[in-house]
């Protein structure tokens, strides 16, 4: 039996994830769904945002649907997302950005870089160690090359090798592997890339880059499709996979039934594709496109529906596709 862990998290995660879960349950009532509670809300209640037992339960799942968690700027607060990524070794963060005439896949290294977690702080100085390893780089570029071959596209290597030595290391490994694979590639400085991807999105297919740069670039690219409320992501490892909307917990709108659940729904679609249900993933994407084209959408896209009501509309549209 396929087991799906459902992690709502904090803020609007409690609203958008139930919509996505409802769609999954409609398409696959035979799956076993079980909740796992992590996040700032759990920390407020128990003093621990993510316990060892929670990690163990997540490891039993075939896939994880993850909402959004609040990470307060507190010295002793451990990021839940970083802990899960490291514990499950989810080294590849895939962030698709699809629109009229372009289909970009940003492949972000997900376990090291500036998110290495190796930090020190004193009264006068704070230091975060940026880790770029050969093993980490080779496995992320291997993922990017595979996607480039499947999509028959161009691989772009995003870096800042003109300033940062660890990016020279990253770039050189990526180039060597791309040449060995015989694929077309180019390279761009990440700041220039962030502008050019907005001006000429049709010129890009697969983009591979380091952890922090990938985080920023994918948020920038979300502008092309209407914002963070529409962009999904997958966190993939050799044994585990987690799917989450790119947006945060948005506490300012939490509980108001106004959050756009499309990013969560598209993350669920990516999960279905990972679980070899490409037809189901396509049905979800088609239902979203159909509704939005009619103006049947949430207020941020010019519609009038709330979060829950958009979920109702999605299930209704899915039923009409039968």
Look at the structure and give the mean pLDDT: 95
As a percent range, the share of helical residues equals: 40-55%
Radius of gyration, CA atoms, in whole angstroms: 19 Å
- Treating each run of at least 4 consecutive H or I residues as one helix, how many helices? 11
Give the beta-strand count. 12
For the terminal residues, how far apart are their CA atoms? 24 Å
Output the CATH class name of the largest domain. Alpha Beta
Number of domains: 2
Could you explain the architecture of this structure?
The protein has 322 residues and is of the alpha/beta class. It has two domains: 1-90 and 237-322, Isopropylmalate Dehydrogenase (3-Layer(aba) Sandwich), CATH 3.40.718.10; 91-228, 3-Layer(aba) Sandwich (Isopropylmalate Dehydrogenase), CATH 3.40.718.10. The protein is built from eleven helices and twelve strands. It has helices spanning 13-27, 40-46, 52-59, 80-87, 134-151, 165-181, 190-199, 211-221, 262-274, 278-294, 307-320, and strands at residues 3-9, 32-35, 63-68, 92-99, 102-109, 119-121, 126-128, 155-159, 185-189, 206-209, 232-236, 241-245. The protein has a ten-stranded mixed sheet with strand order 2-1-3-12-11-4-5-10-8-9, sandwiched between helices. Strands 6-7 form a two-stranded antiparallel ribbon. Strand 8 (155-159), helix 6 and strand 9 form a beta-alpha-beta unit. Helix 1 crosses helix 9 and helix 1 runs parallel beside helix 11. The longest helix has 18 residues, at 134-151. It starts with a strand and ends with a helix. 44% of the residues are buried. The mean pLDDT is 95.
